[in-house]
Amino acid sequence: MPGLVSCPGGLIVIGILSLCVVHISSEIWSNEVSDVQYGSLGSSVTLTCGGAQHGSPVHWRQNGSSVRFRHTHTSNGTLILHNTTRSMEGNYSCHNQRGVLLQTIRIRLGHSPGYLNVSCRVPSHFIIQCSWTQRVTTHLPTKYITTYSVNDEWAQHCEQSSMDVNECTIHNHEFWKPKYLVNITEVNPLGSNSTITYVDLQKSMKPHAPKAVTVLEVTGEPTRLLVQWNFPESWPVMAGLPLKFELQYRPVGSNLWSKLETEDTSAMIMDALEGHLHHIRVRAQDALINYSQWSEWSQVVQAQPWSDPLLTAKVTTEQLLDFPIFPSTFPVKATEKSPDLPLSENGSLGLLITLGLFAAVMVAVVSTVTVLLWIRNRRRDNVTKQELTSMVKMKSLPV
Ligand SMILES: *[C@@H]1O[C@H](CO)[C@@H](O)[C@H](O)[C@H]1NC(C)=O
Ligand SMILES: *[C@@H]1O[C@H](CO)[C@@H](O)[C@H](O)[C@H]1NC(C)=O
Ligand SMILES: *[C@@H]1O[C@H](CO)[C@@H](O)[C@H](O)[C@H]1NC(C)=O
Ligand SMILES: *[C@@H]1O[C@H](CO)[C@@H](O)[C@H](O)[C@H]1NC(C)=O
Ligand SMILES: *[C@@H]1O[C@H](CO)[C@@H](O)[C@H](O)[C@H]1NC(C)=O
Ligand SMILES: *[C@@H]1O[C@H](CO)[C@@H](O)[C@H](O)[C@H]1NC(C)=O
Fold it and tell me: From the CA of 198, how far away is ligand 3's center (Å)?
């Protein structure tokens, strides 16, 4: 490959390629209507009526009606449009004094190309994909010439798969040469402009996300999850170039990810939270270039570790058996555990208060009766002890 430049065959191939480029460019412009005239927005555009006899006055129309813009007629049959705006585009026709059509000219207005926003991504050692957008909207038919050079060597073609998509791909088979210059040249009827982008293959290396992430429970292992995935489609597995993977997992609802690193395409999570749903995701990085970029994360996959069906059933019955100890007068919900505590506390508290009140009333009644009896005793000394006991009994009855 390094001998390509010195090889005449290589030169001929490149020569043919550049001929093709030139050919394509002329084809694109000739496909446009033959009498289209392009002008720069904001500048002045001069239209010349080709069929006019020298010196005879002509009449101009735009889209079929008389021209209404500020303009200048000249006696030589030309129309000059000043400070052009997009509303001045359209079909212009010139007519002689009898109204006979002499010529039509289509005017399209826009801007000459500016620089482009170019970004290149390197999903593997063998592919560089560049895409671009205009910084200046030109309003004009545009094409792009896309080339690149490696380590100052001869410019080669960056392949555009479609003229409608602003994207080109370098199929690179010299991945040991890390410095690339990508030249995207925008060409339109008003001019051309080249944007040169430097690509450091190693720093820009960013694989696509791992594909087909699946998570399996492991029978008999309530804290394990087996995670499997595939290499990204664009990664040349056959070339034997290694990727390293980072796997992250967390129980649903937790903010903290736990992580595992591996060069394999599977990994076993050993410390999953028993009985919980987990979120799992995987990303990839070139294993040889440690300053290359991590891929995007794969889709998040949701999975729960294995749980013993018998054990689950037992736990449920035990929870139910906890509650019948309380009499049915206490409002206890068997389904939710946390709201039970305040409810049963309220129940015992109520019982205590009732008992306390009852005791207080008893004390009050007994002391009142005692006081009354004492008073009576002092007033009537002849009252018998027998009568007293019966009175105490009678007073306490209503309570
Ligand atoms: C201008 O002319 C072209 C063909 O010459 C035609 O397709 C187009 O519709 C015309 N536009 C207007 C606004 O008349
Ligand atoms: C074009 O516009 C500029 C300012 O926008 C003005 O000064 C100038 O007179 C205009 N020219 C004509 C011919 O209308
Ligand atoms: C003439 O037609 C073009 C489209 O072909 C349009 O952009 C322009 O505004 C039209 N102008 C007038 C004055 O109708
Ligand atoms: C390319 O575009 C930039 C603005 O984006 C401009 O300053 C420069 O003059 C243009 N070069 C050419 C050759 O038109
Ligand atoms: C970029 O490509 C264009 C078109 O092929 C060419 O004219 C220009 O010289 C190139 N620029 C550089 C810096 O290689
Ligand atoms: C990257 O790898 C080089 C050697 O391969 C090592 O010296 C360097 O410390 C590594 N850097 C990081 C951030 O791991």
Answer: 42
